[in-house]
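Work Package 3 (structural annotation) set out to generate three-dimensional models for the target panel prioritized at the project kickoff. During this period the team completed the workflow that converts sequence records into discrete structure tokens, so that structures can be stored uniformly alongside our sequence database. As a representative example, we reproduce one entry of 188 residues exactly as it appears in the project archive.
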Amino acid sequence: MIAILTAVRFGRVSRSSSVKETHISKRWHDFEHAIREYSADLYRFAYWLCRDRHAAEDVVQEACVRAWSAWATLRDPGVTKSWLMTIVRNESARRRSRIKPDASLDEVDEVHLPAVPSCEAGVETAQILARLPESYREPLLMQVLGGFSCAEIAAALGTTEGAVMTRLTRARQALRRQYAEPLRRAAG
């Protein structure tokens, strides 16, 4: 498949295949345009799901490979962004299910643990977001980081708009409670 795309892209295809070349070339152009347009959003979403830069890059790369394989099945170009985000989400879940822990916590010596990062505010925010249930965290991140509407989030998650709005409201309420808790303790 890659050899065909490369041959088409660099004009090494015979004239008898010009119809096929035009079709693949148009598909490739549309795909490349979509990836360039949404790559930053895809990476940000993958990063929040994985919490690791390298893992997020791998997830986005795998998602792009899967998206290209299924590009011909995309019927409505208006849902391209949510379709790509769904693929990233599924690829992240697939990756999590394949990863097995290397060692138990009992076997890890404190000396081998990485140093604690000094960027407290970012870490605190990430920790608070991580405490949210995934069913609340995912739509919130899709809306805040990805700029999705409730309808797009519902389509990506396979649920209704009402359910998405409920999850978003509950996520925001939980965040308010979590941010207010340290303030109450400090004032207390």
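Residues 18-50 form the longest helix (33 residues).
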